[in-house]
Amino acid sequence: MENTDVGSFMVQGLWQYIAVKLEDLEYELNEKNHDLRRLQAQRNELNAKVRLLKEEISMLHEQGSYVGEVIRVMDKKKVLVKVHPEGKYVVDIDKNVDITQITPNARVALRADSYVLHKILPSKVDPLVSLMMVEKVPDSTYEMIGGLDRQIKEIKEVIELPVKHPELFEALGIAQPKGVLLYGPPGTGKTLLARAVSHHTECTFIRVSGSELVQKFIGEGARMVRELFVMAREHSPSIIFMDEIDSIGSSRIESNTGSDSEVQRTMLELLNQLDGFEATKNIKVIMATNRIDILDPALLRPGRIDRKIEFPAPDEKARLDILRIHSRKMNMTRGIDLRKIAENLVGSTGAEVKAVCTEAGMYALRERRVHVTQEDFEMAVSKFLCLVVNLLVCLSIPLIPSPLTPFLWFYITSLILLSFTVQIPLTFNDCTNCVVPSRHFFFKLPKLDIGVSG
Question: Which segments cross the bilayer (predicted)?
Fold first, then answer.
């Protein structure tokens, strides 16, 4: 029995030893496989680097090329090319180059020994200009715009219809419009409408501010304008939206300063590009400004700007539409009278109406509520009106005769602002020559006959 127990014990110990040894071997095998995969990855990476270095060496051994600009395609095998500063040459085309891809103003490479066109080069575009292109299609739609039905209809005719249905203009025998000017006070929806047009036409949207084209060095602004239109041609159909165009498009005057001369040169290049590019290339220009009165007449003439669309301050119906658009996703209680809120926002722009909705939500957050009430909207309207009254009082107090009391000062400035009767919040400070509006209580301005003797 003892021999049997000893034998079984030895066998059991042997199996345990074998199991441990197998585990060690499996661990080592996994480590070796991991090292093998790592070395294979390093080998592939080094092989890729070797291939790149070989290509660079072969390119360095090749003979250099001249860079030229195509002027005209003569026939299937000849092209007229301008090489700076040598001149113009009629050159042959390499058999590996597709002649259908050669267009006027294209950059090409010519062999140094034979002047054979052997490569089509990409257009040279400044990185600052390429950053102006919006990669993602704007998500704004016409449904997000309220109170601008007439403006939407007009911009559809000028921008969207020529891009989607150019055959209609060919059938009528008329030229497609090139550009449109949007003008009006700030916050009336000019930029929003331009984004919506780009969304519905599925065009490349290039947004540039006029101040970005004002450069320090001579000729830099004009060069950026040229490259801007080159990029628009390459990514057509495209829409170029130029905001604050009055910064470079103001009327030309005699000036001895270099900065004004550079701005005028930039505008002249813009005029040249508007006349030069073909409207059938699906390139449309939308300009926006708050100061149409200072723009140069040469920029506004038909053929460059074919339609001018005004964006006035919204009326009561438009303000109600804007309120409905911006409040439809808000968690509001029942019974909120948006029409009353729109009536109180006299003279406000669309951006200010949207700000009222945001401010109403902020009042609800301050009271730790997840829903917006009528009182929140009234408080937001009160805050907006307080800012306007404060500004008007500060501007008008120095112009009012001193014998008037503070109440009459506030009465006159309020009549100037609100015309007749509008609910506004106010309170008086102890100061004898100022008015501090507040949101504590409301009253209506009475119609009083005030006689002020001279």
Answer: 407-428
